[in-house]
Design goal:
Two copies of one chain form a homodimer.
Chain A: H1 9-22, E1 31-32, H2 35-42, H3 46-58, E2 62-65, E3 69-72, E4 87-89, E5 97-108, H4 111-117, E6 124-134, E7 137-147, H5 156-161, H6 166-174, E8 180-189, H7 192-198, E9 205-215, E10 219-229, E11 233-239
Antiparallel strand pairs in A: 1-3, 2-3, 4-11, 5-6, 6-7, 7-10, 8-9, 9-10
Helix pairs in contact in A: 1-3, 2-3
The structure holds a DNA duplex (19 and 19 nucleotides).
DNA sequence: GAGTGGTCTAGACCACCAA
DNA sequence: TGGTGGTCTAGACCACTCA
């Protein structure tokens, strides 16, 4: 999949740090060794370690704090409350978000889900449905599918305990940090059940947001389909 | 607007290079002085200039080519044909894109447009409408608004000459490079005129894409509203 | 004051490119 | 062959944090 070839030293060091992250050597929020320590233990100069950590920091895998150290990135310290959720109230208000769980069941992966999550077809999955509301108004109907094995402890009770903050739950309960996500956006009309769940008329235009989230090493761990009502909210995207 | 304060040397150098870009000292595609030359003329070390250029490169303002030099980024060398247009065929095919101009007129900025483009209300603007088609099927209805002064030469003929590649035209004809853009996405239903233009039924869900594009120094230069038919295409977004 | 990340320097060698 | 960016080193000083 990757092209090994000759890699600059700093990339080898970056890979080495990533491997130790995958191995769970440092949990989210914990400090990694200082640049000097890493440099000494690896037998390279501090500047080289620095460049490796620079890249990890620019990918939000790690967070630097001057005078304190470098820490494994945590979902909770993301800028906004909602890491990947870029939905913003069009009038600029910052409403609280409420989570209502519709279901949380075990099932088997369909061909499509299996491909997305890079698991065998028919393997066990967890299938979650919920509605997210801003200020009492339903705004998002989410369906979330997880591979069952790494997420064994997931239950309706646990999700409610985290008030629907899924990524925070993954991180603190399963030790799984999401590092990257890919989204496909389309516009769709609300069909019967969806319209009912969101309390809108059938055919209401919705922003469909299909997302695959990846953990360290680009391993897909979550598939999600969000149907968003965008009458009072919009999805913000910065390009450069 | 910005906080001057004390800036690291490399940021001051970055600002200095940006200023010279704004001044038009180097046109898109032209090489900027080598790291050694800049370092010598500014009286700093090569590593410091390097860090300044690193940031400009990571913002796609400048492109490095090993063994050749560093060049002002050009729209034409963007990865895909369509720099900011992230619409992809759902079946993975890469269809050619056709551009049909509906209108290109002079007008006055409304309050909303004036705010978005940071110009005075009522100042002269250019108002363009067009339909983009993939493989003969209309997919996007675009409305593009530009401040008239910097884009004085824009005409229907000129746009057709560039087959609708607006950003390439801005760059080669007006010397204006877009560096950054902010998009707001929502789902809407096609109203009468829109439905006609795209050849779909009224009420068909469309992905509404409102975009402001910025040139050097974060100056807004283009407002755009794209209404996209997403039955066979989707908008791709990578998060990290 | 000790330790951390942040900046800056000076110089070395490498990989790549063009003439 | 000479010039460019890419990597790596070694060491200096600064700004911040915390005991």
């Amino acid at each position: 999949m990757t092209t090994p070839k000759f890699q600059p030293l700093y990339r080898q060091i970056k890979a080495l740090i990533t491997d130790r992250l995958i191995a769970g050597e440092w949990v989210p929020g914990a400090p990694i060794p200082s640049e000097m320590d890493l440099a000494a233990s690896l037998g390279v100069s501090q500047g080289t370690v620095r460049k490796a950590i620079d890249e990890l920091a620019s990918e939000n895998i790690v967070v630097r704090r001057q005078g304190k150290g470098t820490f494994v990135a945590t979902y909770s310290e993301e800028r906004a409350k909602l890491r990947f959720l870029r939905l913003t109230a069009s009038d600029g208000s910052a409403e609280a978000l409420e989570n209502r769980l519709l279901s949380c069941e075990r099932g088997k992966a369909t061909a499509q889900i299996a491909r997305m999550l890079d698991v065998a077809r028919g393997s066990s999955i967890i299938d979650i449905s919920r509605v997210l509301s801003f200020a009492g108004t339903p705004v998002i109907l989410d369906r979330i599918v997880l591979p069952a094995a790494p997420f064994a402890g997931v239950s309706a009770e646990l999700i409610n305990e985290y008030s629907g903050s899924m990524y925070r739950m993954y991180e603190t309960r399963m030790g799984i940090s999401m590092v990257r996500a890919e989204e496909h956006l389309t516009a769709v009309g609300a069909d019967g059940p969806v319209a009912t769940a969101l309390g809108v008329a059938e055919g209401t235009p919705l922003l469909s947001n299909e997302r695959v989230a990846y953990t360290y090493g680009d391993k897909p761990m979550e598939w999600r389909l969000g149907l968003c009502l965008t009458t009072a909210h919009h999805y913000v995207n910065l390009l450069d």
